[in-house]
Amino acid sequence: MSNHDVAVAGVGMHPWGKWGRNFVEYGVHAARAALADSGVDWRDVDLVVGGETVRNGYAGYVAGATFAQALGWNGAKVATSYAACATGAQALDTARARILAGLSEVALVVGADTTPKGFLAPNAGERWDDPDWLRFRLLGMTNPAYFALYARRRMDLYGATQEDFARVKVKNARHGLANPHARYRKEVGVEDVLTSAVVSDPLHLLDICATSDGAAAIVLCSTAYAEKHGLGGGVRINAISTVTPTFPNTVIDMPLLSTDSANAVPAPERTFKESIGQAAYEEAGIDPADVSLAEVYDLSTALELDWMEDLQLCKRGEAEALLRAGDTTIGGRIPVNPSGGLACFGEAVPAQALAQVCEVTWQLRGQAAGRQVEGARVGITANQGLFGHGSSVILSR
Amino acid sequence: MTATPAIEGWFTTGPESALVGSRCTTCETVFFPPLHQASGPGFCRNPACAGEEFAETRLSRRGTVWSYTDAQYQPPPPYVPRSDPYEPFALAAVELPEGLVVLGQVAEGYGVADLRVGAEAELVVETLYADESGERTVWRWKPVVEMGEEADQ
């Protein structure tokens, strides 16, 4: 394994839902759960890293300090990270870097959000130089429309069907049934998906994840600190990949209206999403064949299939075959989204990448009651956010 | 009142209308949206190039469909709906010979059933919405229907 491991001392979450309360309340709940899980006293934490939320005013912009104050100022150093959907992973990476540099021993990483109803829309005001504003103004291009472009491409290139996409939802709904932190815990049938309204062809309402309130927190420490205090049950973070794209990025990316051009410089060997996973594998020194489970960003059902290929869990165009054979179901060869995924959670942006790490930790400890992947040794997470952000975290035990 | 582009300098109007891109005068990389008329200096995004000067270049009017979809629900502001009640429209990502993919709405009267990955599409300019200054136009992608195909439909 890699020589820059850090230990996961404890994890905790606030249940996902639409609770309509302040994000600080969720964050503190998750932080206290993670601290209790780790056995670390809050006063011993020497670094707090918050995942920024952009929809909750100033307190959200300085989330690290907001959580630290709510828990009671303890003199810890503080940082706040923002990387769209990869916010949680970037916050985690900030904590890891300080621990590996010997500047911190034990850190608390927290992400929490309260989200509005409906489509995620840009902030108010006229901004003719902001692509996130322009894509709505000039094209009416919502997030689900981007997801639908990728889904349609799978259909036209690889023969995927809307039934395949529905099967992803059916599987994830079943996975999440016993997850106490999931927002949606209800069986869904293929017909339920196919008879739900089409949002952006070929995706139905039930193919697309909701936005949710929620919070996740992780207590991270050096391996020496974990051993000295007997923390964490042996779960290690082996890699956190937060790479940016390599020019020219020729796959259309939210919220842009166009790709880079490959007219002068040829496209790189790997797409951006492929490079996110590859960097994690290289950093961890772990082979894709050794992965026991994956938690990937199913913003849409079809994106789960893309991620399986981007993470080298199967060859390009083969994800539907694995899905249909039950390989990605718990009990199968490579379970994907045993937590239930975004299909059961909905997205709470700054918390979501941390929630993925919480789930992998429980899986590796054998504590994922009702959704346990037997004998899990290595887990990988993946997500992608706006503006060249993305992350992949590899954990092992 | 005359029709004017919803955004200045991104496309030409009139017959043979085209997207206006920027070509880096140092490394030749083409960019769209254009960089040459930005309020400050534009910076070439090729990491091996420090170019800050760009020449205006018209992009090819035809390309191949990379993918496509539609908007069955009315997008939130700042999208300006053209009609009440809302009417869905299609969207396409089109790969141009210059090696980039450009998103656009699909031309009036066409939907997802008229599109497939790899098919040809060409640029047209149509009305996006109307405001106090009149009709505001935008580029759109129109499926290219070859002779003979039309008769099959």
Provide keyphrases for this structure:
heterodimer, A: alpha/beta, Peroxisomal Thiolase, Chain A, domain 1, nine-stranded mixed β-sheet, two-stranded antiparallel ribbon, 11 strands, 37% helix, B: 153 residues, mainly beta, OB fold (Dihydrolipoamide Acetyltransferase, E2P), three-stranded antiparallel β-sheet, 1 helix, 39% strand
Walk me through this protein's architecture.
The complex is a heterodimer of chains A (397) and B (153). Chain A is an alpha/beta fold. Chain A folds into 2 domains: 6-116 and 213-235, Peroxisomal Thiolase, Chain A, domain 1, CATH 3.40.47; 131-208 and 238-396, Thiolase/Chalcone synthase (Peroxisomal Thiolase, Chain A, domain 1, 3-Layer(aba) Sandwich), CATH 3.40.47.10. Chain A is built from 14 helices and 11 strands. Chain A has helices spanning 23-38, 57-61, 63-71, 87-100, 131-139, 143-158, 162-175, 190-194, 223-229, 272-284, 301-310, 319-324, 341-345, 349-365, and strands at 6-17, 47-51, 77-81, 106-113, 198-200, 203-204, 213-221, 236-241, 293-296, 378-384, 390-396. In chain A, strands 3-2-4-7-1-8-11-10-9 form a 9-stranded mixed sheet, with helices on both faces. In chain A, strands 5-6 form a two-stranded antiparallel ribbon. In chain A, a hairpin with a 5-residue loop joins strand 10 and strand 11. In chain A, helix 4 (87-100) packs across helix 14 (349-365) and helix 6 packs across helix 11 (301-310). The N and C termini of chain A lie close together (10 Å). Chain B is mainly β and 153 residues long. Chain B has a domain at 62-143: Beta Barrel (OB fold (Dihydrolipoamide Acetyltransferase, E2P)). In chain B, 3% of the residues lie in helices and 39% in strands. Chain B contains 1 helix and 9 strands, in the order βββββββββα. In chain B, strands 5-6-7-9-8 form a 5-stranded mixed barrel. Chain B has a 3-stranded antiparallel sheet with strand order 3-2-4, with no helix packed on it. In chain B, strand 2 and strand 3 (30-31) form a beta hairpin. Chain B is globular and about 50 Å long.
